[in-house]
Write a structure and sequence with these properties.
It is a single chain. The chain has a two-stranded antiparallel sheet with strand order 1-2. The protein has a two-stranded parallel sheet with strand order 3-4. Strands 5-6 form a two-stranded antiparallel sheet. The protein is mostly helical and 288 residues long. The radius of gyration is 28 Å and the shape is elongated. Helices cover 58% and strands 4% of the residues. The two termini are 30 Å apart. Its EC number is 4.3.1.1. Keywords: Lyase.
Length: 288
């Protein structure tokens, strides 16, 4: 069941939900790859402040070419060595991409924890793999430990981004002496975020299962599916049906049939699984 502001919205499949997560993460991988290219720009030969004092004219292009050969990366010489010596903007951009990935991963983990909450008093739409006993006092309790760990890793990466940002800002005049802490923060973020991604996939996502009966009960017991009836009974009637459902505990189907707004066959067609997941707009049949 789709939800907005934690309230019932309209139906969707778990496949649609998880596909959206995959696209969300693919976008961030592309962003990281794009920004990582900024790190290929080097200032070799700049010497003290970027003026190239005491450096032979041919040194910089030759050494950058050699670096590219040795490393296997297409390194390039910075356009302005003074700018490249004083500025740490590339680190800000790259770590910013890591932070964006961390933000989205943390959001996904929040969703996994919420969707697996229960099993009796929560949403309980999905089951996460059991990795350890959840409590020393409550038998059979299972905690979402991997999403929780990944959440905390993401918090750390987001904190490191503040460190990188402030260190880049703190450089004065022609040299930024804060690069050591920038490097430490970046290496840590890359390391822990890489491990978090791997653990999330191998120890959580790969073992997730769906609670089909629970998901179906939420959909057909939801008031939100009255939205599908708007083209047939109108928004005003839909609002009345929704309020009656909320007051009486009856389903949308029951109230619509009782009020004679649609037939059983029409409801079967509208509330078919195919139409609920891939709704087709149908012409209005009611009078305003």
């Amino acid at each position: 069941m789709g939800r907005t502001q934690l309230q019932d919205a309209v139906p969707m499949t778990l496949g649609q939900e998880f596909h959206a997560y995959s696209i969300l993460l693919k976008e961030e991988v592309k962003s990281i790859m794009r920004t990582a290219e900024l790190l290929l720009e080097v200032n070799l030969g700049a010497t003290a402040i970027g003026t190239g004092l005491n450096t032979p004219k041919e040194y910089s292009p030759l050494v950058v070419q050699k670096l590219a050969e040795v490393s296997g990366f297409p390194c390039v010489l910075a356009e302005d060595l003074i700018e490249a010596t004083s500025d740490c903007g590339a680190y800000v951009m790259v770590h910013g991409a890591l932070k964006r990935l961390a933000v989205k991963m943390s959001k996904i983990c929040n969703d996994l924890r919420l969707l697996s909450s229960g099993p009796r008093a929560g949403l309980n739409e999905i089951n996460l793999p059991e990795l350890q006993a959840g409590s020393s006092i409550m038998p059979a309790k299972v905690n979402p430990v991997i999403p929780e760990v990944v959440n905390q890793v993401c918090f750390k990466v987001i904190g490191n981004d503040i460190c990188v940002t402030m260190a880049a800002e703190a450089g004065q005049l022609q040299l930024n002496v804060m690069e050591p802490v920038i490097g430490e923060a970046m290496f840590e973020s890359i390391h822990i975020l890489s491990n978090a991604c791997r653990n999330l996939v191998e120890k959580c996502v790969d073992g997730i299962t769906a609670n089909k009966e629970v998901c179906e009960a939420y959909v057909f017991g939801s008031i939100g599916i009255v939205t599908y009836l708007n083209p047939f009974i109108g928004h005003h009637n839909g609002d009345i049906v929704g309020k009656i459902c909320a007051e009486t505990g009856k389903t949308v189907r029951e109230v619509v049939l009782e009020r004679g707004l649609l037939t059983e066959a029409e409801l079967d067609d509208i509330f078919s699984i195919q139409n609920l997941m891939h709704p087709e707009y149908k012409a209005k049949r009611y009078e305003d």
